[in-house]
Design brief:
Layout: H1 3-30, E1 33-39, H2 49-66, E2 70-78, E3 81-88, H3 92-105, E4 112-117, H4 143-149, H5 154-170
Antiparallel strand pairs: 1-3, 1-4, 2-3
Helix pairs in contact: 2-3
Amino acid sequence: MNKEEILKANAILDAREERVNLIEALIENYKNTIVVARVNYPGNNKENYISDYIIEKGREELIKVFNDRIEHIIEKSSAEGPYIVLILKLDGNTAKRRTIEIENTHLLGRFLDLDVYEGSISSISRQSLGFDKRTCYLCGNYAHECIRSKNHTVEEVEEFIIKAVKRYMEK
């Protein structure tokens, strides 16, 4: 890694810490379910027009799905990319099931990371509700395994996401 990449990686880590602190404060202040939507975009350049487009479409879908349950929406952008926080008047397990449906059925849903928190900074997992772990865009293995073992280059994953977004825009 060169100096610029190290600085960008550190900025992403700092942004992640800020996001976690925000979530902790919201859990404490609102005592309601929190949904955080981020873009699953590889590498250190997470602030880009593709991420912006995906999060905007994700925002539209989240508002449609949770419309009358939304107490508050916060929209932010940081070194880890754009993200949205919804504070909901809805139990966490129901919210998680609905976010999994978005991730599994919306054409851009697989590029969203939709975490649900209820009373704790630990998010509700897919597995705790009987769903499988998320799979890799490119090969179908579990995504975390591909990320850890670096089975694919950042460029391969970026290219896949960009092509999928372009196909979505053409519909």
